[in-house]
Specification:
Layout lengths: L1 H23 L2 H5 L15 H19 L11 H6 L6 H29 L1 H11 L12 H10 L3 H65 L1 E2 L2 E2 L13 H18 L14 H30 L5 H17 L2 H23 L2 H37 L9 H51 L9 H7 L7 H8 L11 H21 L7 H5 L2 H24 L2 H7 L16 H4 L48 H7 L9 H5 L2 H7 L2 E2 L2 E2 L3 H16 L10 E3 L5 E3 L7 H16 L13 H22 L18 H28 L9 H45 L20 H5 L1 H12 L4 H24 L6 H24 L12 H13 L11 H9 L9 H8 L10 H4 L4 H8 L7 H20 L14 H7 L7 H4 L13 H13 L1
Antiparallel strand pairs: 1-2, 3-4, 5-6
Helix pairs in contact: 1-3, 5-6, 5-8, 8-9, 8-10, 9-10, 9-11, 10-11, 11-12, 11-14, 12-14, 12-15, 12-17, 13-14, 14-17, 14-19, 16-17, 17-25, 25-27, 26-28, 27-29, 28-29, 29-32, 31-33, 32-33, 32-34, 32-36, 33-34, 35-40, 35-42, 36-39, 39-40
């Protein structure tokens, strides 16, 4: 041992001496301070520096060569301290090598710098040694040459240095190799240890998985044998809590068995314990899945909203959640319900089914018709035998056949209606059953959370993609919603997809065999719509009862994502787990699994930990079926609003819209039904108003008026309208009252076409040919138009009475509010047609007739300006009345020739228009009479009384009871006020100023009934001669001027403005020539001032006129406004 130590010390000493010699003989290293261990400059030419060099070199070599760590240098304390840590061999070796690399890098950098800065100092001595001389371009520096010459080395010294460097480099390479081999051995030992440690960890993990596998296997074993869940599957045959726990264990075992550590590759060794448990685990997993599938199928086949069913459904979904198959199981259930609904649709909307339905109805109707005929024959024979007259027993075969055929048609229509209703009810029941399954599934998914992960089941289903089967429904919903997951609904996807499939099936059926079955298929719509509305209403009730029972509680307790309530960790809160969330209020007697706790995922259990804190009702819950609630006598749901059902998404989707491949839902069937309905309604129109042709003696065709429909034709049209409307009656047509508006719109379209045909049949003659100008009798064209008006009136009467005759009259006195509502809805829907008929008659027939008759009356009234009121010598009591001479006969002729021929509703319109025009025209003409003396006033008063009496008789013949009912009574009020105006005498007081006279006039009670033009024209009768009358100012006849004020249709609004402007123009012209009239005392000079005082008051004479249009809503009398405004002006 001592020998080895001495040898090592001698090697280390030799290495240190060699390195010290290298440092001493290398002046450049000494110059740049690379010989010192501390990096200090050590070459100073003194002996002390040599000791420092030896110290550094010795310590450097010792650090490289000594591996025991016990070497110490006696001269330096730093060296011994540096080598004292003998246990860090690798660290010291790495540091030594790093120090060597650093030194070599410094030497290399120094040589490069010297070669770059002073190359002659490096190569100069060698060149001179070989005999070369260096020539400087500049002046040589003798001092530098001496220094170079003194420092020149001999060839021998250089060779010795090179040899020493070579030996030193060889030694250093050996040292580096030894260090590298040592490090490699350490790394190898470390990798071996790490490998053994990783194998230990893997083995530990595998053992843990095996132990967990055995632990989970013991959960699903009974007496060492794996349980078979499939054998006990079924409603009430399995404990759902055990099945839920088994599903959780199966999920864990499947995950462990699928791990690569427990599943060896092909040809690899297996683990006996794992392989022993694998068959049993797979068998348990298969049995759990079969049991869950059996439960799901049973629950889907026996759809119910009871507490037990919802609890079992929730537990079954919990099983699938543990198995990781909740998404697939949910969509499989939805697809199953969709297949069930499509199967029901295929049975109803199938060519063979439609034909079979018709054949069955025909056979039953034929049998019943024969049976009724035979019964009737037997009755006749028995009655003839009892009476002893054999002749009564004889029945005419043709009459019998005719009666049998009529009975057959009646019975066939009834049987066909019954068959359609039965098939539609069967279809709606199947679709409602499928929809209830999906709704219960969606409701349970949306309100159930996993007890451990707190994940909502519906969110789990929504996280994955929708199956391809429901992509069309998803796209349809994305077009109407924002497409976010918050709006995800299994029920909506199911319902829309069902509607899309239904629409496609109906379209294919309508096109089957070239559309030969379109009429029969379209006839299904009333029954299908009625059944659909009943189905959607029931679904809407169930959905609303399930959602609104404790909506506020659910909203305030929703603390998890998606707003779903979270079950408490202690399973105690009834608000989180009690049946209030699903609308159930008690338990059923056979409910053996309703008390599933949170460990089993029981969200819909009947018993919770604090169930005793809540009132429990023994009745059925809000989600129980409607039939069950009715039988149990429980609380019935409030009647669903029809508008709420019609605005629900389910009804909108079922009624149809534009889907991905065209129409969806019942929209194709509805379009086909309306098409067939229009075809039936429009069929009689081709026989209405046919063109008539007449040929003269020469065989030339002459234009004649069209032939009008007979009353029989109109009755047939009324029968068709009522038959179409009766399709909306559930009793007679098998439809639903909600169809009333839709069918009424079709009737409106038909009546529009009828009105177009009637417009073409009206004789378009000029106004001058409406009435014979010589005799006043009606022309042939007018008589034809009156007959057209009679046809239109008859049709309007039929249309007006059709709703009541269809929906109310057949059921009196036992009609229901639904019948009244249907009749009202139908009446409102038919109003556009009635309005169109009335507008047609008024614009094309009545208005031209009224214009012609009013023009004749206006000409007759204008005759009063021919001097009949200017004679002062004739006794007023003996003179003939102007009205009796010129107007009474005309009114009688109009009443006999026109009003009696027109229908009552149109006769009243004509009478009212003529009476209105006559009153306004007579009053306006009377106001223009000038001058107006006492005799004239008396005659005019008598004529007013005769005129009123003649008009009363005239309007009574037209169907109006009194003149006060015409145009809101305004014309009659003005007629009555004229008598007061005639004897107004405030102008007799010459001391009154114009302002006082105007003020007193406007304060009269009767002034509010006058038009402004009437008052102004009456004041002209007191004016001087230089103040021209308005008709004289415009150089017009009085009757022609009145025609500008009162239109032929009786309107006065436009004429008042022109009359006002004319009066003001007359006053302005009078003021210009008033000085000429200074010496003339005839007339009252204050009239012009009185008229001008009203200029500011009457800025808008139309608004201030008391006579407005009768059709407008009555407004406050403008004359009152005139009085108040004038009073304020004058006051």
């Amino acid at each position: 041992m001592s020998t080895n130590t001495s040898t090592s010390n001698s090697v280390t000493s030799n290495a240190a001496n060699a390195l010290a010699l290298l440092l001493r003989e290398d002046p450049l290293l000494v110059q740049h301070g690379l010989t010192s261990y501390r990096g200090e400059r050590s070459f100073t030419g003194k002996d002390s520096d040599e000791s420092i060099q030896d110290e550094a070199a010795y310590a450097y070599a010792a650090s490289l060569l000594h591996d025991n760590g016990d070497f110490s240098h006696s001269n330096t304390e730093s060296s011994s301290g540096w080598m004292s840590s003998s246990g860090e061999y690798r660290q010291r070796a790495s540091e030594a090598l790093a120090e060597v690399d650093r030194k070599l890098a410094l030497v290399d950098s120094l040589s490069q710098r010297i070669s770059r800065d002073a190359p002659e100092r490096v190569a100069g001595p060698l060149l001179r040694l070989h005999g070369f001389e260096l020539n400087d371009n500049d002046k040589s520096d003798e001092k530098d040459e001496n220094r170079v010459a003194s420092s020149a080395l001999t060839m021998t010294a250089t060779r010795e240095k090179a040899g020493r460097l070579h030996r030193q480099s060889t030694l250093l390479a050996q040292i580096a190799a030894r260090v590298e081999s040592t490090l490699q051995r350490g790394v190898t030992r470390m990798e071996s240890s790490t490998t053994r440690l990783s194998r230990v960890l893997e083995l530990s993990s595998t053992l843990k998985m095996i132990m967990r596998l055995q632990f989970e296997a013991r959960k699903v074993c009974s007496d060492g044998v794996f349980m078979d869940w499939d054998s006990s599957a079924g409603i009430g045959g399995v404990d759902l809590r055990d099945l839920t726990r088994a599903a959780a264990s199966v999920a864990v075992m499947e995950e462990l068995l699928a791990h690569p550590a427990l599943t060896p590759e092909d040809g690899a060794e297996t683990i006996d314990v794992v392989e022993k448990l694998r068959p049993g685990a797979e068998a348990v997993a298969s049995s759990v899945r079969k049991a869950a599938a059996g439960l799901m199928n049973e629950l889907q086949n026996h759809a119910s909203s009871s507490s037990a069913s919802l609890s079992r459904l929730g537990a079954t979904l919990q099983v699938y959640f543990h198995l990781g198959e909740l998404h697939d199981a949910s969509w499989k259930a939805v697809a199953s319900a969709l297949s069930f609904a499509e199967k029901a649709s295929s049975q109803l909307f199938h060519p063979a089914g439609v034909q079979k339905m018709k054949e069955a109805a025909k056979a039953e109707a034929k049998a019943l018709a024969e049976e009724e005929a035979n019964s009737k024959d037997i009755g006749i024979q028995s009655s003839s035998a009892s009476s002893g007259n054999p002749g009564l027993a004889k029945v005419d075969p043709r009459q019998r056949k005719k009666q049998t055929e009529a009975n057959y048609q009646r019975l066939y229509a009834r049987k066909l209606r019954e068959k359609r209703s039965a098939l539609s009810s069967k279809w709606s029941t199947a679709v409602a059953d499928a929809a209830s399954r999906v709704w219960n599934l969606h409701r349970v998914l949306s309100r159930r959370n996993d007890a451990v992960s707190r994940r909502n089941f519906l969110e789990v289903v929504a996280e994955q993609d929708v199956p391809e089967e429901f992509r069309a429904a998803e796209k349809w919903l994305e077009g109407r919603l924002d497409g976010s997951k918050a709006n995800f609904s299994l029920f909506s996807l199911f319902w829309v997809q069902m509607c899309i499939g239904l629409g496609g099936r109906i379209q294919r059926l309508l096109k089957y065999d070239g559309g030969t079955l379109e009429s029969d298929v379209a006839s299904l719509y009333p029954a299908v719509r009625s059944a659909s509305l009943e189905m959607v209403t029931e679904l809407y009730d169930v959905m609303q009862m399930g959602l609104s029972s404790l909506e506020d509680v659910a909203a305030c307790l929703s603390s998890s994502g998606g707003g779903a309530p979270v079950a408490g960790v202690m399973g105690g809160s009834a608000c989180l787990e009690e049946s209030v969330f699903v609308g159930i209020s008690g338990l059923e007697e056979d409910d053996v699994v309703s008390s599933a706790d949170e460990a089993a995922g029981g969200f819909f259990g009947g018993n919770s930990a604090d169930a005793w804190t809540h009132d429990v009702d023994s009745g059925f819950g809000a989600n129980a079926s409607l039939d069950t609630r009715a039988k149990s006598g429980g609380l019935s749901a409030s009647p669903t609003s029809t508008s709420a059902v019609f605005s629900s998404p389910e009804w909108i989707a079922l009624q149809g819209g534009k889907g991905q491949d065209g129409a969806m839902g019942l929209l194709p069937l509805q379009k086909s039904f309306l098409k067939e309905s229009k075809k039936r309604l429009f069929a009689p129109l081709e026989f209405m108003f046919p063109e008539a042709v007449s040929v003269d003696g020469d065989g030339v065709a002459q234009k004649v008026l069209p032939t009008l429909p007979s009353r029989y034709d109109l009755a047939k049209l009324d029968t068709n309208i009522r038959e179409e409307l009766s399709l909306a009656d559930p009793r007679t047509g098998g439809g639903d009252f909600s169809m009333t508006t839709m069918i009424s719109e079709t009737v409106v379209d038909m009546l529009h076409e009828f009105c177009l045909a009637a417009r073409r049949a009206i004789s378009e003659v000029g106004e001058e040919k409406v009435v014979d100008p010589r005799t006043g009798a009606a022309s042939e064209a007018t008589k034809h138009n009156i007959r057209v008006a009679t046809v239109m009136s008859t049709l309007a009467t039929f249309v007006r009475n059709a709703p009541e005759n269809t929906f109310v009259t057949p059921y009196r006195p036992a009609q229901s509010p639904q019948h009244e509502d249907a009749s009202h809805a139908c009446s409102v829907a038919l109003l556009p047609a009635l309005q169109e008929i009335e507008n047609l008659v008024k614009s094309s027939i009545l208005n031209p007739l009224c214009y012609a008759l009013n023009r004749r009356i206006g000409i007759a009234i204008a005759k009063m300006h021919r001097g009949i009121y200017l004679s002062e010598t004739v006794d007023a009591s003996q003179a003939s009345s102007f009205v009796q001479l010129h107007l009474t006969d005309q009114f009688d002729q109009i009443a006999n020739a026109y009003l009696s021929q027109l229908p009552g509703e149109y006769a009243s319109i004509v009478a009212s228009t003529i009476a209105t025009f006559s009153i306004y025209s007579f009053v306006s003409n009377a106001a223009l009479v000038r001058p107006l003396g006492e005799t004239s006033r008396l005659r005019l008063t008598q004529d007013l009384a005769d005129f009123e009496l003649a008009l009363e008789q005239f309007v009574f013949k037209g169907g109006t009871s009194s003149l006060s009912q015409i145009a809101d009574g305004k014309p009659y009020a003005e007629l009555r006020a004229v008598r007061q105006l005639l004897y107004w005498n405030r102008l007799d007081d010459k001391t009154l100023s114009p302002a006082e006279v105007a003020k007193s006039l406007l304060r009269e009670v009767w002034v509010k009934d006058f038009r402004p033009s009437t008052l102004f024209h009456f004041l002209f009768s007191f004016a001087p001669n230089l103040l021209s009358s308005p008709h004289h100012f415009k150089r017009m006849d009085a009757g022609e001027y009145v025609g500008t004020i009162v239109k032929l249709d009786g309107s006065i609004e436009d004429g008042e403005a022109s009359a006002w402007m004319t009066c003001m123009a007359c006053c302005d012209a009078y003021q210009q020539r008033e000085s000429v009239d200074a010496l003339i005392v005839e007339g009252d000079r204050r009239i012009s001032a009185i008229l001008m005082l009203n200029r500011g008051k009457e800025s808008d004479p139309v608004e201030n006129s008391c006579c407005m249009k009768p059709a407008k809503k009555p407004k406050p009398p403008p004359a009152k406004m005139s009085v108040s405004s004038s009073s304020s002006k004058i006051g």
